[in-house]
Amino acid sequence: MKPKGLRSMRDIPTNQSLKNHAIPQSRDQLISEYARLEYQKSRLERELNVWMKNLKKTEDRIRNVQERLSLIQNLINDIPGNRQPPNFQSPSDGKSEKSAGFKEISIEY
Asked: Which residues contact 32 (CB under 8 A, 6 or more apart)?
């Protein structure tokens, strides 16, 4: 019969997990654990602040790239002699099997 509450090997209690989840018995142990948890909390808050700053920087960079992409796309569309839309694909005329993997482009001088 399988004990209830155990779903995997991670749920089996070990000496280390029992020690970490045990209730401190003395005042010194309580103060030590409280100080350790306060330090961990402040470290995690600092880490969160760094992540949030990096998130804002990354969002700004993405926004700048998007603006630059739209500007360049507009410039490409405004070039005289640009008869085809930017995503134009020429219809294949089925000349040969050999050229099936290549795209054709025409160059005008």
From this structure: 24
Q: How many helices (H) and strands (E) does the chain have?
A: 2, 0
* 11 Ramachandran zone, left/alpha/beta (phi>0; psi -120 to 50): alpha
Q: Tell me which H or E stretch contains 76.
A: helix 27-78
Residue type present at position 11: D
Q: Which residue's entry shows tokens 């993405």?
A: 62
Give the DSSP H/E element, type plus range, for residue 17: helix 15-21
Residues contacting residue 30 through CB under 8 Å, at least 6 positions apart = 24
pLDDT digits (tens, 9 = 90+) for 69-89: 999 999 888 887 655 555 555
66 and 53 Cβ atoms separated by less than 8 Å: no
Q: What is the pTM of this model?
A: 0.45
Best CA proximity match to 96, nearest among 104, 85, 84: 104
| CA pair distance 57, 6, nearest whole angstrom | 44
Query: Sorting pLDDT into bands at 50, 70 and 90, what band is 1?
Result: very low
